[in-house]
Dol-P-Man:Man(5)GlcNAc(2)-PP-Dol alpha-1,3-mannosyltransferase
Amino acid sequence: MAGGVRRKSPGSPSPLWGKLHTLWQDKHLVLFKTEYTLLVVSVLWFLEIGINVWVIQKVAYTEIDWKAYMDEVEGVINGTYDYTQLKGDTGPLVYPAGFVYIFTALYYITSHGVNIRLGQYIFAVFYLITLLLVFRIYYRTKKVPPYVFFFVCCASYRIHSIFVLRLFNDPVAMMLLFAAVNLFMDGYWTLGCGLYSLAVSVKMNVLLFAPGLLFLLLSEFGLIRTIPKLSLCASLQLLLGLPFLLDNPIGYVSRAFDLGRQFMFKWTVNWRFLPEWLFLNRYFHLVLLAAHLLTLLLFAFRRWKRPGESIFELLKEPAKRKIPPQKNTVDQIVLILFTSNFIGMCFSRSLHYQFYVWYFHTLPYLLWSGGVKKLAHLLRVLILGLIELSWNTYPSTNSSSTALHVCHLIILLCLWLAPPLPSAPAETQQHTPVKDKRQ
């Protein structure tokens, strides 16, 4: 009828209705199909808001390092820039300058560190931001089934404790690290390197990602174009540490970047089954360091580089390599970075309870990246559960630390046996120089 209102055909439902209909049909697969990752993690993220509020309100806060942090930054506020003179209840200040600036801001926000409850809510925000960054990584890779994300957030008592009941600096460093990983995935390598360096300035554990990052930078840009990005990382460290370097450079470097710091045996999670004299032995530490470096080299030479390509080809500009350059996929970027960090965790001289956050959010990705087909979903979940149990056993026991090493070994072997990840499609890479996106 002319001039009349055109009605929708009853046989053509709206796109939204089509999606809802498909979701209803697949409801029994929502937790298993990776295309529903965004839906599941969105529900879990909003659920986490309530969980964190409940934990803060109902579970008693435990003082461990917060007061020491506040005493340390208070010394800087009062005009002391000599790192050897800065200390708190638990000992001297042993973190780089980025820690000082961030926790100085928290010092003022929380009324000189007295308003603990406000500090807990700030760390709850840090936790939620970290989850968003982690979930975006898993959404982009679409490798882990959605049901696993329940174990990534709601099921871990220890991670909630580290964030909102202990207020450690480790979560701040990891939040910045995951933000840098997101930038790397999007091709913002220079900005990502800056944020990565900022994470290192909060706590040195982030350096465990450095071998993987160096490999990726060389792969993407070659040696000459990698140097400016490494220079940016170093310059940021110098800039942040400048007030302390001007006062006592040796004191700052020796305290903030002390790679030989001795750990206390009573806090170890991973080496409880050793006698204390061996745990403290410097030769044992050197053996661990050698095993760490050897494993990194094996992965770099055998698992990370492309088949048939010499590792030394990475030093050349991509356009001058014998094999046409191919851009690293998101999967390759994430896998190399997470594996680099995990290898460091496997050979760490000691792991304390707050260190769990250093690799907790990467474990599902590593497990589902393994190349052992017989490692079924149930066995992967069992490994996650055993690792969680090991980190929740306090004090650690011979059994808990042994179980942790066995789980680490299984994951490491699975990563070694995994088939190489495919590079980006060749038609989009040939004759196209690698660009570093800018904000």
Observations:
- The chain is about 60% helix and 0% strand.
- Residues 1-5, 426-434 have pLDDT under 50 and may be disordered.
